[in-house]
Amino acid sequence: MKAKYLLSNVFAVVLLTQQCVMYTDAPAPGDEPYREKPYQQQNDIKYEEEGMASFMADEMQNKKAASGIRFNIRQLVAAHPHLPFGSRVKVTNLNNNKSVDVTIIDVGPFVKGRIIDVSFEAAKQLGFIKDGTTKVRVNVISLGDGTVDPEAL
């Protein structure tokens, strides 16, 4: 009877210890540590689109954009429907070939057929204040990380 009791206890101890696993950060002998580099943003993006642009009106002055930045019509900023905040884009007016670099700080425009909404200052430099809209080409200079540094504007 004692042998049966002893055998069942040994069996229980073996079962319990098989369930325990020791974790360590060190690689096991013979294992190679993980060497793949994390994703790095690539600044050589080949993104281009053409369509209609408009400019943000005066009533947007000092209101917060979706990025949290207060909108200033005198800065070279813009709203784009899907580029991340902080992205830098070159906007070229296809009617007069003038171009300007802007930073994406907001989401928009929300008018069908428009691809970008630029600030008053950007529209002035592009030469379409009088018309209100113009056909443009948008080229990505660098993709943002979703944040905007107000000091960099």
Description:
The structure is a single chain. By secondary structure, the chain is of the alpha/beta class. The protein has a domain at 48-152: Barwin-like endoglucanases (Beta Barrel). It has helices at residues 2-19, 120-126, and strands at residues 48-55, 77-79, 88-93, 99-106, 114-118, 133-142. It has a six-stranded mixed β-barrel. Strand 3 (88-93) and strand 4 form a beta hairpin. It starts with a helix and ends in an 11-residue tail after the last strand.
How is the secondary structure organized here?
Elements: H1 2-19, E1 48-55, E2 77-79, E3 88-93, E4 99-106, E5 114-118, H2 120-126, E6 133-142
Parallel strand pairs: 1-5, 2-4
Antiparallel strand pairs: 1-6, 2-5, 3-4, 3-6
CATH architectural grouping of the domain at 48-152: Beta Barrel
| Overall 3D form | globular
CATH homologous superfamily caption of the domain at 48-152: RlpA-like domain
The residue-averaged pLDDT reads 81
* Major sheet: 6 strands, mixed, barrel
The number of helical segments is 2
- Radius of gyration (CA) equals 29 Å
Strand content: 25-35%
Reading side by side through the largest sheet, how are the strands ordered?
A: 1-5-2-4-3-6
Q: pLDDT below 50 for ≥5 consecutive residues: which ranges? A: 20-25, 33-41
CATH topology of the domain at 48-152: Barwin-like endoglucanases
**Helix content range of the residues, please?**
10-25%
Write the H/E string, N to C. Answer: HEEEEEHE
- Total number of beta strands: 6
SS content category: alpha/beta
Name of the CATH first level of the domain at 48-152:
Mainly Beta
Q: Termini separation (Å)?
A: 85 Å
